[in-house]
Every structure is written in C-alpha cells, then in structure tokens.
Amino acid sequence: MDITVRVEVQYVAPENALIRDVLQMFRTPAWVRFMVRYISPHLKNAAPADKSVMDNLASWTVDSSSSGAKVGAKRAAGSKRPISSVSSAGTCAEDCVICLSELQNGDEFVSLPCGHQFHLPCIRSWLKLRSTCPSCRFQFRKAFSGSYAVRTLNSALLLKQEHRPMPKEEILNTCVGRETVRAVVNVTLSQIAAHAKQSQYPCVLNALMMHSNGDSFTEAAAADTALAKRSSGGDEETDGGNNNNNDQSRAKRMRVA
C-alpha cells in the first residue's frame, strides 16, 4: 500500500545560496533524510483506521427500531442501560460525543466493539483521521503500520510575489542566502515486507519552482526560455530533447530505512 503525504516546510538557505542551489539541494540524499525525520511524527499522530475497520462499520450498525423494545424490559428489571440500547422515548442512552448530538430513534448509528455508540457518518469521518475510539481510546488496527520506503519526493519551492514578472533565468540566479524559503513537498511511501528491510529501493527526487498562482517550472524550462531568445525553432526542439535526458539523469536512487 502506498501513502502520499503533503506538507509545507520552511528551510533556511545557506549563505550566498541561489534559488538554483536550493533546487539542487532538494535532489540530495540529505534532503530525503530531513523529510523522513519531518514526516515521521505526522504519520504517527495522524494514523487513520485500517480499511478493514472501515469496511466493518456496516456490520456494526445498530437497528434502532428493534433495540427500543429491549430497553424498557431491562430498565424495569433495574439493570444498567447498555450503551447500545435505544430508549422507548426515541433517544439513545448516550449522545454522540463527536457531534455532541443525541442518538435519536431512527438515526443510523454504529456500536463499536468496545460498546460505545456514534452516528455512522460521524464515526466514519473520525476513523479516517484516527484509529481509536473517541470515548475510551480503544485501539483499532492502524492503516499505517510496518516499514515503508520513500519512492518519490517532489519538492516545489514557493516563489515570492516579486518573482512573478522576473524572467525564469533571473529567478534561478536570485540570492536567497540566509533567507527562510518555503516549499511544498509531496512524499510517496511504499510499504515493504519485514524480511526486506535491508534491501535497496529506488527513490526519485524532483524539484521545481512554483508561483503564487500555481504556475510551476524547472531549470530545464528556464533554459528553454533563454535558448528560445537566441536560437531558431529547429535548434529549440533539439535542445529541448537534450534537457529531457538531463532531467532523467538527475533522478537520485537511495535506500531509506
């Protein structure tokens, strides 16, 4: 199973660094190691429930119309009202702690294996973000478990507003030394078998620049623009092909534990 994580990070560029230097840094093993350390806490804190748990929600749905008859008898006998019961007045024994609304007779709700009860849409949304019961923290199977290897890491350097009118080549040569630059990073991780932890896996690193309006480009695009001003259409096509080959050679491969 693959996991895609999207985060925005801040990075203080080294002294005298240009934007093109930052892009090159985004393609180094050191950047991969930094991002692995950065996203690990995010994956641990935001651990949704496994797909099998989500699939079981339908089988845990409580039939409120049939549960109501059982409640009156149990309460008449003086026993404690079970969490999964529905009162004869048409409301459940407890509120849904997710939306803080009563579980009404006729509502579609779920009784989890731990016994706590929630609206079906509420608990479905909850388990997409967390893998514990909202009431008792009963731990369900997590969607993210085991070992993962970074397969792709796409970094987009966010440009400032003043960069919009500048030529692409000039943007690349802009000094950002000791400045805090921002980047949006998309990391794709693939689960690996326990016996293959020491194996090596290819890791493809891509880096580009992105304007505030969403337009993005790479160094190759900047070079094409500069060449277009000096070359004919035929030369431009030949140079473009060479740039594509260079992009492929810049893909980094490394093992991430």
Automatic annotation (TrEMBL):
Domain of life: Eukaryota
Domain RING-type: 96-137
Cross-referenced PROSITE patterns: ZF_RING_2 (PS50089)
Location, primary (coarse class): membrane
Topology class, membrane: Multi-pass membrane protein
UniProt EC number: 2.3.2.27
Stored CDD domains: RING-H2_PA-TM-RING
Keywords: Membrane, Metal-binding, Transferase, Transmembrane, Transmembrane helix, Ubl conjugation pathway, Zinc, Zinc-finger
Chain coiled-coil ranges: none
Subcellular location per the Swiss-Prot or TrEMBL entry: Membrane
InterPro entries: Znf_RING (IPR001841), Znf_RING/FYVE/PHD (IPR013083)
One Pfam entry name: zf-RING_2
Region (Disordered): 225-257
Any one annotated GO CC term: membrane
The name this protein goes by in its record: RING-type E3 ubiquitin transferase
